[in-house]
Amino acid sequence: MKNIKVLFGILFFALLVTSCRTNYVKERPTIAEVLRPPSPGNNYVWLNDNWVYNRQERNYIRSNGYWAKPKTNRNYRQGYWKTNKNSSHWVAGRWK
């Protein structure tokens, strides 16, 4: 029974580590111009597109921007591409 618990602990840790790793690509995806829909109200802010990594195809897929109500005492930090010597990866936008 103890061996099974240890095995499940190792498997859980391995899944956690692989799901958190950064996904690099050699070329950034092309950017498409998208028309912003009208705001649903005065107290909304526009959150720009994000990019989501598709593990099967090993590329990024654009996630459309949307209107959201601001979180109390927080600012939204837009996502951006971070590039190193040979590749790039997307750092997702988030509330800070």
UniProtKB/TrEMBL annotation:
Record InterPro entries: YXWGXW_rpt (IPR024447)
Pfam families given in the database record: WXXGXW
Protein name according to UniProt: BcpO-related WXXGXW repeat protein
